[in-house]
């Protein structure tokens, strides 16, 4: 299935190329763009996981502090 997808995409690139443009130059630019998007997305994913983990740790610390606190006296 992946081979079919790659074949169709590559055939579209070849068919849509304008005369006078180098096919490999166009292909290289497209590959670089895809690589940068994937890299940026992965960095964002790692940053989001780090923020989620940090937020979870802060929530755990707050819960631990409230559990460790001595009980307050009842007020009337």
TrEMBL record:
**Signal peptide range in chain numbering:** 1-22
Protein name as catalogued: Uncharacterized protein
In terms of Pfam families, this protein maps to: Antimicrobial12
In terms of InterPro entries, this protein maps to: Antimicrobial12
* Segments for region (Disordered): 52-76
Q: Where in the cell is it found?
A: Secreted
Stated family: Belongs to the pleurocidin family.
Keywords in alphabetical order, please: Antibiotic, Antimicrobial, Secreted, Signal
Q: Which domain of life is it from?
A: Eukaryota
- The residue stretches assigned to a coiled coil in this entry are none
Does Signal count among this protein's keywords? yes
Q: Does the keyword Phosphoprotein apply?
A: no
| Compositional bias annotation for Low complexity | 57-68
């Amino acid at each position: 299935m992946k081979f079919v997808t790659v074949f169709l995409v590559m055939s579209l690139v070849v068919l849509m190329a304008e005369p006078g443009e180098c096919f490999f130059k166009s292909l290289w630019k497209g590959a670089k763009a895809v690589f940068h998007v994937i890299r940026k997305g992965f960095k964002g994913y790692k940053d989001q996981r780090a923020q989620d983990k940090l937020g979870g740790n802060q929530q755990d610390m707050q819960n631990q502090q409230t559990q460790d606190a001595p009980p307050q006296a009842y007020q009337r």
